[in-house]
Specification:
The complex is a heterodimer of chains A (about 375) and B (about 100). With about 375 residues, chain A is an alpha/beta fold. In chain A, about 55% of the residues lie in helices and about 10% in strands. With about 100 residues, chain B is α/β, with parallel strands linked by helices. In chain B, about 40% of the residues lie in helices and about 35% in strands. The two termini of chain B are about 20 Å apart. The chains are: A alpha/beta (about 375), B alpha/beta (about 100).
Chain lengths: ~375, ~100
């Protein structure tokens, strides 16, 4: 049997609670509208968030609030968190971006909004979250069944994932404020809040550093300074945008008048690293030194067939085969290379032996 | 060339037999139209008895894969004979079509 909380509410609070019951359907419609406006704007801005959630305050929660501080509210619409929306971000900086979005969508009641991040003294740590109390802008929303809903405000909470974790665990302790928490637990909670704040800052710093690195690499690749660019995911992506294997592909395809179907060459990053390429300059060197042999090897494979469709990996695949063999690699190395590319399979051995056989036949590998 | 549908429900299993070449690639494509136009998401093409595929056959596999992926599905080619797999390797199709 469900246990019902019996609250000691006075007549005034009981009337507010009755008003809530009458307004609840309209509050749910407002919740839905506000949520969708925020969610749509976040998606449009291309921001990645951990969660965007909404709720209407439950009757039990409202009764609890009224029991504690009912005299503070003259009417139901004095309560600003009947409808609540929470946006949880990955990074600290994104909280301010979400805030800017919310400011553009609704009228923020600045007197009642609070930035908890600014409320701590210099030597204290705790709940960090940005709370906006919002009003519906004129004409932005109407509810024919309940026109007075436009006079209600709602709350939007914005915080990072780590801030959210801290808040959720703090809430789970059951204490409503710092003064209730036993001193030794309060100290631990503060330490954890401080640590999470540091971690949040570090993640943001890391994101910024990665963005800076990507911009730098893009610039170096575009200006052709390949020897100075380490071969990694970012640099290889920028490099592929220059279509460095197109000339070789087209030469090979021309032999059979084949069409070239474009595919991602990104999986070859691991293969190039296995071959020993450390910079984009090393990749360029492979094209320059082994392009001719790669062409011969590919033509040897397709020349005697009627194949007239190839993928854009044809040149790079052949280059990798030749480069591996030229640096003294054997069947085992070729097999490993295919494993990096396609995953483990018994067939990789057969493929490696075939490639080595062709390389020997063409004089690319020693007999 | 023969296309045989073993299981048309949930996971679709199709057996391909014989050679796919210029003479029958159009028929091959037509035989697989039900996959391209259907809403099945889990497709297995059993190639154990596929003896040869020409470029036209590769194009059909590619079209099939695009159709299945566009509806969030997965297509896999299984039990492929070595000489057929070599065609997929040489052309680079084994980099984009899942072969088990």
């Amino acid at each position: 049997m469900e246990e019902k909380n019996e609250r000691a509410l006075d007549l005034h609070c009981t009337m507010i609670l009755d008003e809530y019951r009458a307004m609840e359907p309209a509050l749910r419609r407002l919740e839905k509208w506000a949520y969708h406006r925020i969610k749509e704007a976040i998606d449009k801005a291309g921001l990645m968030v951990t969660a965007c959630e909404s709720r209407v305050k439950t009757e039990d929660s409202l009764a609890g609030k009224l029991e504690l501080k009912g005299s503070k509210y003259a009417f139901l619409n004095d309560i600003t968190d009947l409808v609540g929306i929470r946006v949880i971000t990955l990074y600290v900086g994104d909280v301010d971006k979400i805030a800017a979005i919310v400011e553009s969508l609704f009228n923020v009641d600045w007197d009642n909004s609070v930035d908890k991040r600014l409320t701590h003294s210099l030597d204290s740590f705790g709940y960090n979250s940005l709370h906006y109390i919002c009003r519906i802008p004129d004409g932005a929303y109407e509810d024919p069944e309940c026109p007075e809903i436009v006079n209600y405000r709602f709350e939007v909470q914005m915080r990072t994932t780590l801030q959210h974790i801290w808040a959720a665990i703090y809430h789970d302790t059951g204490y409503k404020s710092d003064v209730e928490v036993p001193r030794n637990y309060l100290r631990n909670l503060s330490r954890l809040a401080g640590m999470l704040e540091l971690v949040d800052d570090e993640f943001s710093r890391m994101r910024l550093a990665i963005s800076d690195y990507r911009r730098k690499v893009q610039g170096m690749v575009a200006s052709g300074h390949f020897d100075e660019v380490p071969l990694d995911g970012d640099s290889f992506r920028s490099y592929l945008a220059l279509h460095p294997f197109d000339t070789l592909n087209q030469s090979i395809a021309a032999v059979n008048q084949a069409e070239i179907h474009d595919i991602s060459l990104f999986p070859y990053l691991g293969v190039l690293q296995y071959i020993g390429c450390k910079t984009l300059g090393d990749v360029e060197k492979i094209i320059k030194e082994h392009g001719g042999d790669a062409y011969r090897m590919a033509v040897h494979q397709i020349g005697g067939t009627d194949i007239d469709i190839l993928t854009s990996s044809i040149g790079l695949q052949s280059l990798c085969n030749v480069a591996m063999v030229r640096k003294g690699g054997g069947v085992n190395d070729l097999e490993k290379m295919y494993e990096i590319l396609s995953g483990p399979s018994d067939y990789n051995r057969h493929r490696a032996e075939r490639a080595m056989g062709q390389a020997r036949l063409l004089g690319i590998a020693a007999e | 060339m023969e296309v045989k549908v073993i299981s048309p429900v949930d996971k679709v299993l199709v057996q391909i037999k014989g050679r796919v070449d210029t003479t029958n690639a159009a028929q091959f494509q037509e035989d697989l139209t039900f996959i391209m136009q259907g809403d099945m998401k889990d497709i297995e093409l059993d190639c154990s008895e596929l003896e040869y595929t020409s470029s036209q056959g590769l194009r059909v596999f590619l079209m099939l894969q695009k159709a299945v992926q566009s509806r969030g599905g997965k297509m896999v080619l299984t039990n492929m004979q070595t000489q057929v797999k070599e065609v997929f390797d040489i052309t680079g199709f084994s980099n984009i079509i899942k072969i088990l």
